[in-house]
Amino acid sequence: MSHLRTAVLSLVVAGLGFGCPSHAQRVVVTTDEAPKAIGPYVQAVTAGDTLYLSGQLPLDPKTGSIVEGDIRKQTEQVLKNLQTVLAARGMTLDDAVMAHVFVTDLSEFSAINETYAGFFKTPPARATVEVKALPRGARIEISMIAARKR
Do strands 50-56 and 140-147 pair parallel, antiparallel, or not at all (unpaired)? Predict the structure, then answer.
C-alpha cells in the first residue's frame, strides 16, 4: 500500500508543478553582456519553457562596479541587466511572470515603482521586501521568472 501512496503522491506533486516533467531539460544561461555571477550561481537556468533568473544587482557589466546614482539609477541598471539575460534566451521583460524585489530602504518604494513601471507594458506578479543589506552595498536586487509564450 505504501508504494501506491508514494506513486499517487508523486503524480499529485508533479501535477501541481513541484516537479519538472522528464522532457524539461535544465539549461544554464550565461551571457558576457550582463554582469558575471559574484558567487556560486549562474545568471539563469531554463527548465522547459520557463527561465529562472538569478538576482541582478545594479552592476555595470563592463566594470563590475555598482552604478553611481540614486535608487532610480540602480533600479534602471538592474532591469537592464535582467533584459540582457532574457535576451540571451530570445525573451524580453514581456515574458516575465514573477519578480522578487529586495530593497534596503522601503521609503524608496515610490521611486523604484516609477522606474520599474517604465520597463513593462504589463508588469508581472511581484513581491517586494526590505532587507538589512545586499551584496556590494547595493540598494536593490531583483530576481525574476519568465515563461516563453506558446
Answer: antiparallel
Q: Show the cell assigned to 112.
A: 523604484
CA distance 22 to 10: 13
**Interval 84-135: pLDDT, tens:** 999 999 999 999 999 999 999 999 999 999 999 999 999 999 999 999 999 9
Q: Which residues contact 13 (CB under 8 A, 6 or more apart)?
A: 19
11: buried, middle or exposed (CB in 10 Å: 19+, 13-18, 0-12)? exposed
The whole-angstrom distance between residue 115's C-alpha and the CA centroid of its chain comes to: 17
What are phi and psi for residue 45, nearest 5 degrees? -140, 135
pLDDT in tens, 69-86: 999 999 999 999 999 999
CATH superfamily for 23-147 is RutC-like (3.30.1330.40)
- DSSP assignment of 103-125 equals ES-GGGHHHHHHHHHTT-SSPPE
